[in-house]
Each structure stands twice: as C-alpha cells, then as structure tokens.
Amino acid sequence: MSDNALMSPKPPQVLDEDDFDTLTVIDMGDAISLGQVTEDDDLHDVIIGKEQAKRLIDLLKEFADEQ
Predict the structure, then answer these.
(1) Could you write out the DSSP letters of every residue in the chain?
(2) Which of 8, 20, 34, 63 has the most crowded CB, counting CB atoms within 10 A?
C-alpha cells in the first residue's frame, strides 16, 4: 500500500441502485476495492489495480452508453 493511502484515506463511496446489490468502492491508494454484500449477507470483494481500472472504465462507459 502506498504511503499516500496511509496518510489520507478516502472515505468509501457507496453506490445504490434499485433492484441491485449496493456497491462499495474504496480507494486504497495503489488499488481500488469493489465490494458487495448480497441479500444473503455474502461478501464479494475484488481488488483491482490501475491497469485493470483503466480497462474497466472503457467497458463501463460502453455499457452506460448502450441504448
């Protein structure tokens, strides 16, 4: 983990959308944590790096722009 992340942690971002599990996003400084708790209280947590984030941004933009 980077020193910057230890000195000034950012608060988690909670993303809610009707009919979908809440997504919690945490900026860890050198990685991003994406976490969801399902209706059955199962935790699904994925940590991605900067290159994965860049590719994911492109996919999310494409998905969001679909009609």
Answers:
(1) --HHHHHSPPPPEEE--TTS--EEEEE-SSSEEEEEE-TT--EEEEEE-HHHHHHHHHHHHHHHH--
(2) 34
Q: pLDDT tens digits, the chain, 67 residues: what are they?
A: 555 545 557 899 999 999 988 999 999 999 999 999 888 888 899 999 999 999 999 999 999 999 6
d(CA 16, CA 24): 9
Per the structure block, which two tokens stand in for 40? 């059955």
DSSP class of residue 42?
A: -
Nearest residue to 64 via CA among 25, 28, 24, 15: 15
- Between the two ends of the chain, the Cα-to-Cα distance in Å is 39
Using the 8-state DSSP alphabet, how is residue 2 labeled? -
